[in-house]
Amino acid sequence: MTSTATLMRAVSRPLPLEGAANVRDLGGYPIAGNPRHATARGAFLRGDDLSALSAQDVASLTAYGLSLDIDVRSARELGEAPDVFENPADADGVRYASVPLLDGMNSAGFEGPLPSSLEEIYRVLLDADAYGLARVMELMAAETGAVLFHCSAGKDRTGVIAMLLLKLADVADEDVVADYAASAGYMEARFRAQRTALAKRGIAAPDFLFASEPETMKRTLIHLARRYGSAEHYLLEAAGVNPASVAIIKNRLQGGL
User: Fold this and answer.
1) Three-state SS letters, the chain
2) Disulfide check for 70: which of 37, 149, 161, 168 has CB 3.0–4.6 Å away?
3) How far apart are CA 255 and CA 133, in angstroms?
4) What is the pLDDT of residues 165-210, one digit of tens each?
5) What percentage of the chain has pLDDT greater than the value 90?
6) Is there a catalytic annotation at residue 210?
7) Across all residues in the chain, what is the average pLDDT?
8) Which residues pair with 44 in a beta bridge?
């Protein structure tokens, strides 16, 4: 269960959208060593499936400053639930980019072999799909408006990207963990519906797939530190992101500190 200590830390709340439950700004988290400063609002947003956004939702996001939607879902997920911003006629000027992460694993849905834990998924994403994560970062660096990155639930692939961004901005581990752990609560109603739909198909998905336990992110942060040293070192050395791009993203997150 989510610890009381984690719940006590302030986390960003979802934007009030009709068609998505877990779209949150990464702004407002304290920056280590700069107690009077926090991560900038209106720069990067994390999110869940955007296929059901209403016209009002799209208008709200564009009014928020959104200019780029990075969709990291698999080909199968895209086919089953096309992103609203994929169609220029519905996008209200927002650009759309598809960067499938762990495409093979996620295209299998719940019908292929399942991983043993979320931690395993996150390690595979970091260790084996650095190219995809680098592509996401380069797209972010090239954008001047707000960038929204999302998967289906807004907690796994999205959670790893959010972890890298927040650690790049020198946000404390405790706040990264709290930001991650909040997702399961915001997605609770949608997860119940998904479980019901899977049960009708005779599929019993393991409970951990619908969770965002603090310990999972804590262990992922330990893996990041032990294997790569830091988020910045991971992006530069393992993923091969252009140093100028890393600097741009860090500067935007830190509000120009």
Assistant:
1) CCCHHHHHCCCCCCCCCCCCCCCEECCCCEECCEEEEECCCCCEEEECCCCCCCHHHHHHHHHHCEEEEEECCCHHHHHHCCCHHHCHHHCCCCEEEECCCCHHHHHCCCCCCCCCCHHHHHHHHHHHCHHHHHHHHHHHHCCCCEEEEECCCCCCHHHHHHHHHHHHCCECHHHHHHHHHHHHHHCHHHHHHHHHHHHHCCCCCCHHHHCCCHHHHHHHHHHHHHHHCCHHHHHHHHCCCCHHHHHHHHHHHCCCC
2) 149
3) 22
4) 999 999 999 999 999 999 999 999 888 888 887 788 787 788 888 8
5) 79
6) no
7) 92
8) 147
Catalogue all structural domains in the chain, each as residue range(s) with its CATH number: 4-253 (3.90.190.10)
The whole-angstrom separation of Cα 154 and Cα 210 is 11
Task: Give the residue ranges of the chain where pLDDT is below 70.
Answer: 1-10, 105-113, 257
The sign of the CA dihedral 171, 30, 188, 90 is: negative
| Measured distance CA(62)–CA(48) in Å, rounded | 17
Residue 109: the pLDDT is 56
Task: Note the pLDDT of residue 9.
Answer: 60
Say how far apart CA 20 and CA 45 lie, in whole Å: 13
Q: Which of 50, 151, 177, 209 is catalytic?
A: 151
